Amino acid sequence: MLVAPSILSADFGKLNEEIKAICDGGCDYVHVDVMDGHFVPNMTLGPVVVNPVAKVATKPLDVHLMVENNTFFVELFAPLKPEFISFHIESETHPHRLIQKIKSYGIRPAIVLNPHTPPEAIEYLIEDLDMVLLMSVNPGFGGQKFISSVIEKTKKLKEMINRRNKACLIQVDGGVNDKNIYELKEAGVDMVVAGSYVFGNENYSKAIKSLQV
Ligand code: DX5
Ligand code: ZN
After folding, report:
1. Confidence check on the interface: ipTM exceeds 0.95, yes or no
2. Ligand 1 atom having least distance to the Cα of 35
3. Is 175 annotated as ligand-binding?
4. Residues known to be catalytic
5. If you measure from the C-alpha of residue 176 to the centroid of ligand 1, how many angstroms do you get, rounded to a whole number?
6. Ligand 1: distance of its center to the CA of 134 in Å?
7. Cβ contact 18:199 at 8 Å
């Protein structure tokens, strides 16, 4: 299981140290939550903050956009050279076009599904995707309770991926911890995002390793 700690739960008063600690602690990616105050009822990070994060991080960035104007934010974050940029299917009218745009920057495209959105919504996009992110909480905040229907959804999505593009990864984000990690693994999840579980632990390295099952 690949692990991407979400820096939303980090202590922003010592962000450099926090980034260094998760990278030294053995994480696989650094998950960056970008919220615009419109698509979700919260606001977070712009390039002014994420640029120094990108400099300190020794692991690749995984940028999760929770915004209305996806194209604008893709253009804003592309110069930081993240490995992945993911955008929500619920906020994009022309997802196929946006996928091509992300690829044109040499960045791996991913699409995010809110808890209520069925995997069929992206069936004809799977060939063009490197990853699908299934939200296991309503996007906007860290520290929420895991919505367990994501397990069944993962299994459905896995079948679609096996038929259409076996290289496409499944990521789950929200309420992930050392208890539900095993059923996520069994359902076919490749990567988890974990915010409060990792940063709420005294030993980040130990927390990360407990998810790398
Ligand atoms: C929620 C964000 C998540 C969040 C996860 O909108 O996308 O990445 O930070 O935090 P936890 O692991 O605390 O649910
Ligand atoms: Zn996220």
Report:
1. yes
2. 6
3. yes
4. 33, 173
5. 9
6. 12
7. yes
